[in-house]
Amino acid sequence: MEEKIAELRDVLKKADRVAVMTGAGISAESGVPTFRGDEGLWRNYRATDLATPQAFARDPELVWEFYNWRRDLISKVTYNPAHRALVELERLVPDFTLITQNVDGLHLLAGSQNLLEIHGNLWKVRCTKCHGITLDRSPDLGNLPKCKSCGGLLRPHVVWFGESLDPDILQQAVDVSRNCQVMLVIGTSSVVQPAASLAVEAKSAGAVLAEINLESTPHSRLMDFALHGKAGDIVPRLVEDWA
Ligand code: BV8
Ligand code: ZN
């Protein structure tokens, strides 16, 4: 593994344009439950059952209980060495973009600047009536929170299953994936679309691909580097002694 990490570090040092795609696995060591695995459960519900417009229409209180539970949990954790290492990598690489599927806001907290939150952000709420978006870091927004300006029901400003991603943000992510020379794919099961297809875009544009993940994924075969282990162990070693 060590020589693979050194080899990938050298590739990164030579690159001008680097893209990174992260998923729930990069926040796992911060204590944020991932989606697969049995920690992805809440009261025996799967996130995929609750993170949908249908679930919100059917039982908005239950969905808000789920999101308040996540807000409360994530308000108690912080970024980990893998998040910090990506902030360092952003400083070291001329043209760096971080694309994240995570809605936990930990990349922002860690200091990442050029960040595309393609599935939204748990700390933002959107009014279902006037569509106003506000950032609100209070852990628990209470039952059926209402918009301060129009009284409409608020929802989490995240992309639910069955909802389209913001077209502008997605286009930016596609452009970055097509232009990068290296893409790191960190802590994602590479199952959710269209996020997972960004690595394919990068590959077909000739980028070097590296997967950093606990286990292999459907995209492992695409990878030039498949580094299996904890993000908190591997990612910091990629930015060590660049001098
Ligand atoms: C859309 C915000 C339609 C919400 C999220 C059948 C086939 C293909 C696609 C579909 C299908 N049926 C439905 C679809 C479409 C669907 C989809 O992809 N479903 C999946 C389940 C098959 N996609 C959508 O619905 C998307 N929208 O397609 O719109 C459309 C199209 C046109 C026009 C109109 C409409 C919207 C998808 C976005 C959903 N929102 N999040 C919220 O979070 O509350 S997705 C959510 O789950 C996350 O954001 C993330 O993207 C995803 C979880 O994936 P991961 O991040 O990869 O996490 P996971 O737990 O799976 O994996 C963690 C990995 O880390 C593991 O591999 C593990 O080994 C590793 N790991 C763990 N610990 C560590 C580690 N690695 C390193 N270190 C560690 N310490
Ligand atoms: Zn409103």
Give an overview in words.
This protein has helices at residues 2-14, 25-28, 47-50, 53-58, 60-75, 81-92, 106-110, 167-179, 197-204, 231-238, and strands at residues 17-22, 41-42, 45-46, 95-100, 115-117, 120-127, 133-135, 154-158, 182-186, 208-213, 225-228. The protein has ten helices and eleven strands. The chain folds into two domains: 2-31 and 79-119 and 164-238, TPP-binding domain (Rossmann fold), CATH 3.40.50; 33-76 and 121-158, SIR2/SIRT2 'Small Domain' (2-Layer Sandwich), CATH 3.30.1600.10. The strands form three sheets. A six-stranded parallel β-sheet has the order 5-4-1-9-10-11, with helices on both faces. Helix 7 links the parallel strand 4 (95-100) and strand 5. The chain is of the alpha/beta class. The chain is elongated. Helices cover 37% and strands 21% of the residues. Helix 6 runs parallel beside helix 10 and helix 8 (167-179) packs parallel to helix 9 (197-204). It binds ligand BV8 and zinc ion. Ligand BV8 binds at residues 23-25, 28-29, 34-36, 40, 47-48, 51, 101, 103, 119, 158-164, 187-189, 191-193, 195, 213-215, 217, 230-231. Ligand BV8 binds next to helix 2 and helix 3.
Class by SSE composition: alpha/beta
Distance between the termini: 21 Å
What kind of assembly state do the chains in view correspond to? single chain
Order of helices and strands: HEHEEHHHHEHEEEEHEHEEH
Biggest sheet layout: 6 strands, parallel
**Tally of DSSP β-strands:** 11
